[in-house]
Amino acid sequence: MKQNRFSKFAWGVLAYNVAVVVWGAYVRATGSGAGCGSHWPLCNGVVIPREPAIETIVEFSHRLTSGLAFLLVLGLFLWARRAYSKGHHVRLAAGGAMLFMISESLVGASLVLFEWVAGNISTARVVVMGVHLLNTFVLLAFIALAAWWSAGGKSFSLRNQGWVFGALLLGLVGVMVMSMAGSVTALGDTLFPSESLAQGLQQDFEASSHFLIRLRVWHPFVAVGVGAYLIFLAQQLNAARPGVFVNRASWALRILYVIQLGAGVLNLVLLVPVWMQLIHLLLAVLVWITLILLTAVTLAESSQPVTKPITIGAS
User: Whole-model pTM above 0.85?
Assistant: First the structure.
């Protein structure tokens, strides 16, 4: 792959946005989401807070980093419009990134304005957090595609892809569902911490427990199921669409997901400390981006229909 100035900038924008996502999780994990009150875009009614508390510093810094992320994606969008012709796949990807960055800002603002932060345990907060994570993943996907295509990655068509497109789409949906379940689990762990693993498991199955506690028991099962499917899918794609980039991306996906599962187990055993929550989220984001790139390189590898059936023994 050849890296030009635009592609280097795009990869940098992607890396920065990943960092902002992780920092946002720190805001949630530390209960600092209400650090600026219910004011947006102002913080406690002022532009720059004076003598702020720790929670205010954390939330205000997140707003600053998010604002810079918005400007970087805007720069990516404007640069793509100047550097690539109308209809070019890089330009379309940058446009998608801009669209979802705008919606990302609006969803983030709604969390603050409706006070779905800190200790709020409403159903509305759970729903909006799921929407927020879904929007974030689509945003990162568009930025990753803009970076990959601008570095020389081939575009693709969804026609004549055989079972490959459907299998990849199922994997993408699976990772989204798993990650949304993870966000609900993380919120439950933050709002209802357990003093021991045994106590946490007992709370998970008590009928009197809050629904956030009862929901978190499903995340490990979803994660294992999605992981098994992704590992199997990566093996089949490697056989159906042989190529250097397909091979590298499929192996990266398998390795990352195994590490992700291990981090999930460690997170549970350690009773979800903040630092482990951040690592767990970072790995989830990397799995998602790797799957997006695997999808891009696999669909670009061939436009001919694939009729080879999926078999367990394929390699």
Answer: yes
